[in-house]
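User: Phosphatidylglycerol--prolipoprotein diacylglyceryl transferase, Denitromonas halophila:
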Amino acid sequence: MLTYPKIDPVAFSVGPLSVHWYGLMYLIAFVLFIGLGRWHIKRRPELGWTAQQLDDLLFYGVIGVVVGGRLGEVLFYQPGYYFDHPLEILATWKGGMSFHGGFLGVLVAMWLYGKRHQKGFWQITDFIAPLVPTGLAAGRVGNFINGELWGRAADPSLPWAMVFPHVDTLPRHPSQLYQAAGEGLLLFALLWWYSRAPRPLRATSAVFLMGYGVLRFIMEFFRTPDPGIFSALGGGLSTAQWLCVPMILIGIAMMIHAKRQTAH
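Assistant: Predicted structure for Phosphatidylglycerol--prolipoprotein diacylglyceryl transferase:
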């Protein structure tokens, strides 16, 4: 059994400026997006993307992730708290970013990018889908460093069960690391492999929706559920699991449509 190594959330300070590990993880995520994006452009030149377009995509994506992620946390998970403490909405360095909110924010940002640059929406989402999971992995590492979003109680005999002393004395699943490996690295490997060759329009986006939805749904069984607006729906599911259900269903419908379009 392991003990959570309490980590200072501040990576380093320069005068009055403190740089938090959580913010650095987002920076790493954006760097990975650019690096993998340039690699993807080289291996699939027929997609017609350029390095400059990739940089522009990142700019739109950063805004979508930050605004959507924070609003998702506020509206989906802790509306009561943030409505009572509105200034805390701006304290993104403390953590508290909803994937599903960030996902919706990115979709809006990509739609706006497409409108301005004459790119089809699905053309954009198919291109960026393989570039996203490594950033998700970095975000989960940030959650682990912050000591937040800890897992459910685990069997003490589990070698990697971890006690989070700031929570209680129970051995728990280090679910942040599970998610980094599953929704991050495993999903990246799947999408990077799938996108290596031409696929029907929407198909790569569909794989992302289904893959993330299924993996996140599973990972939630190891993570202490967050209170949220959908928890009251019951069924023993968390808010995140309820949010994953439409992702999976939409992904399945998109894949069927993509395959049918190809057949015709």
